[in-house]
Here is the input.
Amino acid sequence: MLTQRKRLSSGLTATSKVFVRSRNGTATKIVREHYLRDDIPCYSKLCNKCHDLLKPNAQGELPVFVLSETPLKIKEFGSHYILLDTNIILHAIDLLENPDCFYDVIIPQTVLDEVKNRSFPIYQRIRALVKADQKRFVVFHNEFSESTYVSRHKDETINDRNDRAIRRCAEWFQKHLNKDNSNSKINIIFLCNDKDNRNKAISEGVIAKSLNEYIDALPNADDLRDLVPTENESFDKTTSSREMSYPEYYSNSRIMGGIKNGTLYQGILNVSSYNFLEASVQTQAFKKPLLIIGTKNLNRAFNGDSVIVELLPKDKWREPSTTIIEESNVDVGDNPDEEADNQEGGSGIISDKERRVLAQEALKVTSGSEENIQKRLQPTAKVVGIVRRSWRYYVGQIAPTSVSLENDSGNASKTCFVILMDKLLPKIRIRTRKAKELLGQRIVVAVDSWQSTSRYPQGHFVRCLGEIESAEAETEALLLEHDVEYRPFAKNVLDCLPSEGSEWKVPENLNNGDPQLARRKDLRDKLVCSIDPPGCVDIDDALHAKQLPNGNYEVGVHIADVTHFVKPNTALDNEGAARGTSVYLVDKRIDMLPMLLGTNLCSLKPYVERFAFSVIWELDDNANIVNVDYMKSIIKSREAFSYEQAQIRIDDANQNDELTQSMRILLKLSKKLKQKRLDAGALNLASPEVKVHMDSETSDPGEVEIKKLLETNSLVEEFMLFANISVARKIYDAYPQTAMLRRHAAPPSTNFETLNEMLRVRKSGMNISLESSKALADSLDRCNDPKDPYFNTLLRIMSTRCMMAAEYFPSGSYGYPDFRHYGLAVDIYTHFTSPIRRYCDVVAHRQLAGAIGYENLDLSHRDKNKMELIVKNINKRHRNAQFAGRASIEYYVGQVMRNNESEQEGYIIKCFNNGIVVLVPKFGVEGLIKLDMLGDADTASYNEDTFELTFTDFSGNNRKLGVFDKVSVYVKSIKDEVSGKRKAQLILK
Here is the structure.
């Protein structure tokens, strides 16, 4: 990129940025104009020059000057403003948000752009700080200021140019603010954790400090030091003689070359739930996942990291582990101040304890035919690079064994371990002065680095959530663990809606001069009702049906018209897009959009008029579509039913009013729609879903029950599916490249290999067919055990875990055959029916409005690249919401079981060398029963061909347990002393 400058008559300076882009062997020269200004203010209230320079805009407004005329004054730096480098924001955003430090802060535009490119969530948080009045953060547009813009030198990297631009900005501020202000000098403190960049700044006359140096100079330094991220150095400075090292990651050039020539592969690392020393990476080059075995081969990768792996020789390929290995059992008592001794030819990766565990695994008595061993063999690999870290805020507790309880003198930082709630992740080494105070507390930590010379990653304390097992701390913990945004909506978001106290109503006159209102169809005469779970207040769908004179049926699905209030590119829309979905916990709901919208303005409550987006079909008696129409409408719901209330009304022969007849028509047609789906191969899978009843007065969990589904549940589901399919076809016809759709890929046959082998061996040759979704559905129907009615449900639960996850996508990303939704057995599908709680549906509404000519579609939903960004975020948010909901149920089920220990039926779903996993349908929980709780470990043997574990129990009896066996277990809730989480403990009877 080359840059040229020229002075314009207007006084602006234009720089021409010249790029050369190469595609398909041809070079294209691209020239872009970049205009520089001489009137960009410094935003300091001390600067009269900038005040005098500026003129009011068309509204008579001047830029707001927020940098204080009385900034913080400390002995070492005097009165000063702070100018931040990118690395400070990325690694210390929680410290910047702290109310006890960091006021009068300048963020160069160069820094803000870098943050946006590297972490959009952190970018949003820093923007929120800029918008807040209290902290006095400002963005200075140095890239458009003639005084601070710097051109890129020949052979200079982009990073080096950006570093120079930031230093230039700091230098300009120092000179600018003190040129005519000798009486009250203001220093600019450039905060940067890059030592080389700091040294360059100092040589250029800029006061540059590291974050540690700045915090140490503050009067409240003792309270803040724990929040400072660790720099790229080991905590332990005294272990050079015992130094350990992981393999260094490959260089970028070696990685690029390896991927190109097919010797290296990229994928997401998934750590085994039962063996923290084993992980897998799925790649397109291999049918089976690549196994990553052992700490050295995992090479500092976290679960969820995007990694580069290199294949190991075939003689090192092996079967997946059949042994349960938990980090908490291997590394108990490790000293946080010391690294492991040198081992394995100087690599020092595997500790003595870990080596013993691996040796025990190798000595376990297993049996199986050579043919089956070869069949189970998988390629193995090692991690040689990290493409993208999955690091986020983590929740855990300080390991008591890593904290000395003796009275230590002084107030120095102590090194200790934090055991994370997520057992798939390693413990984090932190320094804190509050280690003893924080014992027994849920705390939040951030990971700063993982050096090749450190056995454990290094991080820092962020904040305390509260006492372990308190409902508030555990709920906030699970929200943080699943990256759910739960903070209150900002004022600028709420300002996009009518005020809370005002009563918004549908205008009485549709012809009041508003062309969009005039296009709405008046459907207030339709017998519309809603059917939802009990207590539902955010009602986003309603239905109606009636028989037509020709014998056919008119059926309408009416969806809350959220997009009437949520306009594209507003603060409200941006917030909804960022959150992606509402999150439903046992005791609360975390809204995607403000409550006023979901429970009032848009909610299709009964007896009030509401705006809706309606899909109305004419269906024949076999539920075939004769005609379909889409319209923005006005409706007035007649009633809001719970599923049970609707079912009772439909079943009551004495009820024959028009509304009841309407619901009976809906039920009749829904059964035909469902049968058509099943005939086409739609899957009827299952999950161990339970419902926790909460005490209405105390909010304490009462009892757990398996969710019961009524015919009215299916009624609503079928018509929501029907509407989603119809809308998908309509928006795809209108926007073939950017239609918001949802797909579900067919599972690869390898996903079902183990389950099918279990069925063949354990259930007399039963088999799940995978030729098509129809074949799979039919084979599941055939897999029945006359002696055990629950077996078929259990098999459907286990089959669900072998399926691929459904995902949102813009239609231009795949060919039409890949649009297919395997589970629903339809060729095209979207989500349209819940715009209050899903952002996908908001986009689908806008696209449908554009498709029917109601309003023009915003560019953000017509641009393929922007749609890719939208779906990437909502896919992530959707998954996180599901995991958070399940974690909430798990927590409250654990609380229920504390006071309700009982004997229950369970089913073995996994067997290992040293234990079994049992599913308890009553509570929807799985529990691990280790071999040392079953009997004599020395007598145990595991047959991998028959999935059976044989051992001698404590009474001296020989026992044999296998997959699918029904067992009786005593269920109670215990607190895991390592992670602090409450979990189900199962004791085999």
The chain has six domains: 2-36, 70-227, 240-468, 499-740+811-887, 746-803, 901-988. DSSP finds 27 helices and 41 strands in the chain.
